[in-house]
Amino acid sequence: MFATVNELVGLPGLPGTPQGIRAMMGKLVKDNQALVRKRQGSKAFEYHIDSLPPVTQKALRDRQVKELMKNQDAALPSPERSAVMEKSNSRLSLYRDHPVLMEQKLTGLTADQQKTADARIALVSEVLKLGEIPGFSCAKAIREIVRQSRNGELPEHLATQVTLANAKKGSSRTLSEISLKRWMADFKKARTSTERLVLLAPGKRQRVEPEEIAWLPDFLAYYRNPNGVTMAEAYDDFIKGWYTRYADQPEMLFSAPSYNTVRYAMDKLPEVVKQHRRITGSEARQLEGFVRRDWLCLPVNYVWIGDGHGMKMKVAHPDHGKPFSPEVTFILDGSCRFIVGWSLALSESVIAVADALRHGIRNNGVPYIYYSDNGGGETNNTFDANITGILPRLGVDHRLGIPENPQGRGIIEILNKTLGMRISRQFATYYGTGADKSTVRRVSKSLTAALNAVDKGRELTAKQEQTLREFPSWNELIGEIEAGIKWYNNRPHEALPLKGNGEHFTPAQFRKYKLEKEKTEIEWLSDAELRHGFMPQIERTVSRCEIRLFNNLYYSEALRDEHNRQVLVNYDLHDATKIIVSRMDGSLICEAFWDGNKKAAFPVTAEYWQKQQRIKGMRERGEERVRLAEAENVHTLSAPVAPDWVHSNIYHPVIKGTPAMQVVSEEEEYIEDEYLNNALDMLEKNERKSAI
């Protein structure tokens, strides 16, 4: 170990100036020139530590130790191999002979164990670095590090490593010479970094597996209740049963687990085990693994997903104007997240779903698969009946989701929560998730009061008028739905791929892109096919040219040859005046009309009809003349002069003018009636002449 004059400045036992140190060192090495040399790459001379006074040597070594310990980036020296190190260690040799055990040990190490092993390796490396200092052995380095650790003199990074290396809680724990020597011995035994990690990693407390706890199944029998009992309630029932069962066994009564013990054991259980038989259906499946469906690989119009959504808002009913919550049905193309069709109805029904399908097919073609849930509006004979169903006639494969498994149709469920809720939030009558409960109650109360005032004909207050203005109409809701669908189809969707500019495709853009890239042929339907294809079809029996449908009778002479035969009947969901009748092979027979064969029990003669018309005309003309006469003979009397006020607290009303009719004499009235009768007789004679 050599040092220059500038490096020796300030050390004890030497002069205070460089000139004095240089003169003193010249005298000390005068007889032994091997203790002085010229530093490579410099003009300065450096002197060996043995030429220095003893006190200076000690101070120089202490300073070097501190510098080395502060240097975190110093290279780790290679440990020297000795015969002792090469002696076989039982554990280490087992790992070397069976690499599988080594791999299992490594994979079983926790993050804390790895941090502890790294800290111990860092401390051993410090010992090896200090041991390279001349006159400073590894044993002395160990004692020095332990001393500084106990006195709190270690650098911050080494003090942190000491805390981690202990692998035990408690700030009072310090480093010991025995521990550091043991770590150093394990370090030297290892040949690779993997072996060092395995040997220096501390052990860990063996986990008690739940199946090893004898009382846990008994507690779970109380806890696994679909009514959602709390852990405290289950524990009360469990401990009561425990004391009853072991009433004659004092040792078992004494060993009853406490509530904290039960909570600790339950925290170690997997969530799927704890919730077993507490939750079922879709909630239970949320804790299990699942298959993530890739929709983007499908061609356009391959799978359409449909679902109804009850809107969380109030709208004026289109018939009676009262508040109610409508049902909106969305149909989504799974391959591009594009909304192809929609409908708005009073409730989820076959009419709503059929209208949404018709809207989607008219604008975007016929799908190959229609995917829906098992709701009443989605599964019925109107859609799925063999031969007669709408979807089988169009060649569309109707797939149904698993009951109580909405995760399978997650994309349409997410659409209902995003777009459906977004549309509902545009109105003041929204009452869904996130709405202020007080505001909802206030709006509902104000709306009810305003509608009651309208029904009773009372004058509305300013607040009630404002409430009615904010009460959405049916047409306003339709306009907002159309705007929401346009917004959804033309905004970047995070589930779609990225474009060249780093933004996601919009559903409309991605649909166009896939159509151009894949060149998918789209099947279109004509207006007639759309009109008739979405008419539900049902089988009925013809009886004497009549068909009974929904308690209505439909008749056509063309059905004479089909008596007692089964036919196919197409009916319009919105028009019950007629039906379309076809044979079982699909060929058209005719159109049958409601009450097409209903006639009067006896024919009505022309004379009777003319008589009734004449009487009707006479009555209308007479009523008109009476109205004119009354209007001419009505006049208003002048109001009398009000009397003077009496000085008292009595209020005297002012008599206003009242209308009065002129009295007509009985003779004049008779003459006028006679004139009217004569005029009517003359009119009747003229009509008879013209008829002849």
TrEMBL record:
<dbReference type="InterPro" id="IPR015378">
    <property type="entry name" value="Transposase-like_Mu_C"/>
</dbReference>
<dbReference type="InterPro" id="IPR036388">
    <property type="entry name" value="WH-like_DNA-bd_sf"/>
</dbReference>
<dbReference type="InterPro" id="IPR009061">
    <property type="entry name" value="DNA-bd_dom_put_sf"/>
</dbReference>
<protein>
    <submittedName>
        <fullName>Mu transposase C-terminal domain-containing protein</fullName>
    </submittedName>
</protein>
<dbReference type="Pfam" id="PF09299">
    <property type="entry name" value="Mu-transpos_C"/>
</dbReference>
<dbReference type="InterPro" id="IPR003314">
    <property type="entry name" value="Mu-type_HTH"/>
</dbReference>
<dbReference type="GO" id="GO:0015074">
    <property type="term" value="P:DNA integration"/>
</dbReference>
<feature type="domain" description="HTH Mu-type">
    <location>
        <begin position="1"/>
        <end position="68"/>
    </location>
</feature>
<feature type="domain" description="Integrase catalytic">
    <location>
        <begin position="295"/>
        <end position="473"/>
    </location>
</feature>
<dbReference type="GO" id="GO:0003677">
    <property type="term" value="F:DNA binding"/>
</dbReference>
<dbReference type="InterPro" id="IPR009004">
    <property type="entry name" value="Transposase_Mu_C"/>
</dbReference>
<dbReference type="InterPro" id="IPR001584">
    <property type="entry name" value="Integrase_cat-core"/>
</dbReference>
<dbReference type="InterPro" id="IPR012337">
    <property type="entry name" value="RNaseH-like_sf"/>
</dbReference>
<dbReference type="InterPro" id="IPR036397">
    <property type="entry name" value="RNaseH_sf"/>
</dbReference>
<dbReference type="Pfam" id="PF02316">
    <property type="entry name" value="HTH_Tnp_Mu_1"/>
</dbReference>
